[in-house]
Design brief:
The complex is a heterodimer of chains A (100) and B (228). Chain A has 100 residues and is mainly α. Chain A has one domain. Helices cover 73% and strands 4% of the residues of chain A. Helix content of chain B is 78%, strand content 0%. In chain B, helix 3 runs antiparallel to helix 9 and helix 11 runs antiparallel to helix 12. Chain B is mostly helical. The chains are: A mainly alpha (100), B mainly alpha (228). At the A-B interface, helix 1, helix 2, helix 3, strand 2 and helix 4 of A face helix 2, helix 3, helix 4, helix 5 and helix 6 of B.
């Protein structure tokens, strides 16, 4: 698929989620749906991260990237800073792959 | 009209403290997008028309292995949270015309929404303020992505310098910002475990959506239990 077609599709569905509720006259979504929606970003993003760290070509691979990711989790948990998480994790990755 | 312009500028200024964070995030996105083979124009173009950081990172992460359909569906899932944002501003923009509502939806971001809803709750917000805050983030976001793509082009072998880890690490940081208590931990762990298994045994990339739906559902179930 042409990348620009993918971008337009992404833009269209994103716009839909932004606009859909705006014309509502202060009415609310059903409560269970609201509660469920709060967990979707965390679950979805975790489903993206874990295979990038643990799986390579359909095989479980426990390499240096697992340790770097764990360092990232610790820093993210403690600081809630995306930048510090990236810097600490990359420092660990460089240390493991270049020095040892 | 002077008053309108003033309101727009106040919204713009209110969002300005978010700019350094947006720039850093945009640079990282640009480097990551370049590393999977997107051109600088495509990298910035995605930012300009999609304007949703987390889902753009996700698209970059899925880019080489996934179909366009899977990327678009995952984008929809990640951005469903915008429904909550839209619903919460709806009462404040009841008297705003439809074209204005459509304009406000165009560049609404997590950051500018936060500033606008805070102003509305203070009794200090209006549509122009909201638009000003939205515009401030948008006009920063895509140029930062472009700059990141140029930086990415200058690094010959990204994996050698650990740049292949930028994407998962950025996501780990983003997940932490979405975390709300122990139930979020359940959602994250369940979803991560399912996705690892899915990546090993299932074809394609749809396991991401499946793991996300199941993880979110179990997180919700866990929240009920943890409360009791």
């Amino acid at each position: 698929m042409n990348p620009w077609v993918v971008f337009l599709g992404m833009a269209a569905v994103t716009y839909l989620t932004r606009f859909a509720m705006m014309p509502l006259m202060g009415r609310e979504l059903p409560r269970p749906l609201l509660a469920w929606l709060r967990f979707v970003p965390v679950a979805l993003l975790s489903a993206l991260i874990a295979p990038a760290v643990f799986v390579s070509e359909r095989q479980l691979v426990l390499g240096p990237q697992v340790l770097s990711a764990l360092v990232g989790v610790l820093v993210a948990w403690r600081t809630r800073s995306v930048l510090l998480t990236i810097l600490a994790g990359m420092a660990c990755q460089l240390l493991l792959t270049q020095v040892f | 009209m002077g008053g309108h312009m003033k309101s727009f500028m106040r919204g713009f200024a209110a969002a300005a403290p978010m700019v350094p964070g947006v720039v850093v995030f945009g640079l990282v996105y640009g480097v990551a997008a370049r590393a999977v083979g997107l051109s600088p124009a495509q990298t910035a173009g995605m930012s300009a028309i999609v304007h949703a950081g987390s889902s753009q990172f996700m698209a970059v992460g899925m880019w080489t292995a996934s179909s366009g359909g899977a990327i678009i569906l995952t984008t929809l899932m990640i951005n469903l949270r915008h429904l909550l944002m839209g619903a919460s501003v709806a009462p404040y923009i009841r008297n705003v015309s439809l074209p204005w509502k459509m304009l406000l939806a165009l560049w609404m971001s997590d950051e500018s929404y936060a500033m606008a809803i805070a102003a509305y709750e203070r009794g200090d917000g209006d549509a122009k303020y909201f638009l000003g805050a939205n515009f401030c983030i948008w006009i920063t976001w895509w140029p930062a992505g472009l700059a990141g793509a140029w930086i990415g082009s200058a690094v010959p072998d990204p994996a050698r310098y650990g740049f292949n880890m930028v994407f998962p690490l950025a996501f780990i940081g983003i997940v932490a910002s979405f975390f709300k208590g122990r139930a979020s931990g359940v959602a994250a762990l369940v979803s991560a475990a399912l996705a690892v298994v899915g990546a090993m045994v299932l074809p394609g990339n749809w396991y991401i959506v499946a793991a996300g739906v199941l993880g979110a559902s179990l997180g919700l179930a866990a929240e009920g239990r943890l409360r009791r």
